[in-house]
Amino acid sequence: MARIPYFDMSEASEQYQALLKSRHPLNLYRMLPHAGEAASSGFLALGSALLRENELDSQLREIAILRVGILSKASYEVHQHKRVARQVGMGEATIAALEVGADTSVLTPDEKLVLEFTDVVFRDVKAPDPLFKRVAERFGTRQTAELVLTIGFYMMVSRFLENFEVDIEPAGTIK
Prior knowledge:
Helices cover 65% and strands 0% of the residues.
């Protein structure tokens, strides 16, 4: 159960309500308005750009997001992004390989590189030069920047979700 009441959406700004029209009715979006303007022009805009206007392969992006959620022990984040990962074509074996200590032999070299990079950035903030160089050489400047922003953004999302104990929507609510 959420630690504070969800925001009364009838009191949300018109701008925020407009941003939600094309989105699933997630409980996250009912908690975010407590943050005021940061929720609409900041949070939703960056999240949307990372999910919809990215050059980084969507499956690689979801590997980073899911791993961050797993490392953060953010059940809501993991639940929602397993659904997104499946929508972008990720198989169950790949999703299972993202768990801590799982067999990663099913992952491609690119997927393993993203997983390694995500773990290091999550844990140490700054990747060591050799690892950063491998990522930058493989994915280029823009995709590397998107990957770092994705990791950082979903660390923030996970911490928001966990601290407010946002509830996972009932089964069948989101498809």
